[in-house]
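task queued by scheduler; priority normal; single chain, no ligands, no partner chains; default sampling; output format set to C-alpha cells
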Amino acid sequence: MGMSSWILDQVDEFYEIAQKTIGSCECIEEFQKEMKEHEGLLAGSTELEYLYNDNGYSDLWNEYWESFQDA
C-alpha cells in the first residue's frame, strides 16, 4: 500500500505541474518538451504509456484550451 500511494502522489504531482505549465506554452510540442523533464514522476504507473500511446498530451492540451471557449 505504501508504494502504490507514493506512485499515485507522484502522478498527481505530474498533473499539477502540467496544469501550471500548459498555459505558458505556445503549442502542444512546447508543452510536451516542457513536461519531458517531469515524466520521471510517472515511473511505476501506466500514465506515461497513456501520454504517448493514447494521445494523452493532446487530450490535456485540448481540454485546457477548450475550457476557455466555454467561458
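post-processing summary
- Residues 23 and 65 are 8 Å apart (CA to CA).
- The chain has a mean pLDDT of 91.
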